[in-house]
């Protein structure tokens, strides 16, 4: 990645130098001599194969009677040059090299038509590759790698905390929950305007117009929680310098980062840690309190707790979101709890043990109450607290847990609920009880409801699942009002 990210700069500078030199009607040899370098060295620079030192670019600018910034600009000097740069870049990609095909020499003799065709084919190939990279297997592998990264960092990302902290300082946030108005100020600080609209493309959650500096958000719906998070996600992409994701893994990791970023603004590190430390001193840590203090969803509060618990409170934790049938949608742990995994190490789509708190919460008489229980598992005893999240896609359980030796800090530890989980031993809950099995084995033919989101290939495109035409039409529609 690094290699190709640096290369275009040298390439663009080289093309600009050549452009200006040719415009001035000067030859390679004559200019090289005038600035005291060999013709071949200047040729390497013009071809982007050597990164010129600033003193060299400056000497060339003087010799060519052109302002230095003109040579250092990141924009290609002409449409032809832009095509040349795109072809050079495409030919330098490892994926092209691995095909064993020759590199086409990008010279002035290459007809523009041919150049255009080659660039078009390279880019079509790249997007076809991106499609195949988003198969469910790739998606699951990408998920597993991402979880490894989060685990290694104890789910704490200091650089994102810092960015969030600086933004809050910049808008003079007095502390406490951030309001809608504060989110407006954050966007304004970046030169962006938040615009609510009722005609957002169906395949998007928000759309950012990078040209007119507007972030389009859906109209807040009654009963749904606020659009602060959505706006902050969009701002996160800008602040964290995200580029269009080259593959699904990067897409996922950007999603994790913007989620983190939004949570770090909604629940600022310093004061949230103080809040949790006070609760810990009173042996009364509760996710509900965090949720209520910062006016966020239970899931956001639970997730934020996992960011800060290990780093600042010394508590290892686990977190999961599962559907009513026990299927994992999100999970994180650094406390040794063993999630069920597929052969590739992915957790999403696996079913957790029936004895786990996250599943038993669905059996409680009052689904509006948090449910706490101890579970003896093969990797130790854990205490968990779970709540039900009602969504239009059904019921989900959001579960936070800690190992037994850390339960003394948590509210709800006095529960007498207890369960034993022997999974992955199939006799724990994967196999039907023997009496039932004897009676029904061979006599049942269920038709499976497929989890399409887990099994289907990810929709193609740079932004998986997003309909570009729809998005461009949307921006076109709104751009006229934006420029007024
Ligand atoms: Zn089990």
TrEMBL record:
Coiled coil: none annotated. Residues 17-71 form the HTH cro/C1-type domain. Pfam families: HTH_31 (PF13560), Peptidase_M78 (PF06114). Keywords: DNA-binding. GO terms for molecular function: DNA binding. InterPro entries: Cro/C1-type_HTH, IrrE_HExxH, Lambda_DNA-bd_dom_sf, Rad_response_metalloprotease. This is DNA-binding protein. It comes from the Bacteria. It comes from Flexivirga endophytica. PROSITE patterns: HTH_CROC1. SMART domains: HTH_XRE. SUPFAM superfamilies: lambda repressor-like DNA-binding domains (SSF47413). Belongs to the short-chain fatty acyl-CoA assimilation regulator (ScfR) family. The keyword Cytoplasm does not apply. The lineage of its organism: Bacteria, Bacillati, Actinomycetota, Actinomycetes, Micrococcales.
